[in-house]
Amino acid sequence: MHTKIPVAILCGGKGTRLKEETEFRPKPMVTVGDRPMIWHIMKTYAHYGFTDFMLCLGYKGEQIRDYFINYDWNHSDVLLELGNKSITRLNNGHGEEDWRIWLVNTGQETLTGGRLKRLATYLDKIGADWFMATYGDGVANVDIQKLWEYHQSHGKLATVTAVRPPSRFGEMVIKEQLVGTFKEKPQTSEGWINGGYFILHRQVLDLIAGDETVFEAEPLHRLAEKGELAVYQHDGFWQCMDTYRELELLNELYQSDSAPWTVWR
Predict the structure, then answer these.
(1) Which of 50-59, 141-150, 238-247 has the lowest mean pLDDT?
(2) Is the distance from CB of 135 to CB of 10 less than 8 angstroms?
(3) Cβ pair 117, 212 in contact under 8 A
(4) Distance CA 116, CA 107 (A)
């Protein structure tokens, strides 16, 4: 088990392009099948033995807190004795008993870099030299174990997973397995884009000035310029949930039992 390598998940944005859902809940709590998006992402990491999660909360973060605090109650058979208010779990559980979850308030308006930087205290407390990070609104069938092995092989401060999906995102020019240039959201996008699923050294947080820093801007630019941003090219499935159409697609895949990201099934 990789108990010393926590997974940071960015959960704080407002998700304005999916307003039909995010008016009432944070984007990571939008459901795919019968479970929220955040659960699908965590199940993928846990399948490969990464079960320490640091959730960067912001917009409507209390809903994510409530979901995990009441997790046993909502996903197990229980005996509730009203007289003494005791609760006994009746079945063997749900397979997530070994998860450890830090629920961290990273601010309502904080940008992506600032949210990660706010984890520094907790990373230092558990002595984590490395941590993983990804976005709370997309799923993929990235082999996390292979990603970790690849990261260990090159000795760089950071690895980003590059994917080939619909355009609209940050484009990378890849030279000899290093990111040569990093452009966030060019007008036309062909080739590889930023798919999240980062592995980062604790030192990367020192490149983040504060709450106003967009992680995909200055910090990643500087890592790329210094030759410290390696890239893991993922040719498999990757899908974000930015629009209602994309949410419908994910639900169709999940309900037809052909969802490529459900590696734990």
Answers:
(1) 238-247
(2) yes
(3) no
(4) 11
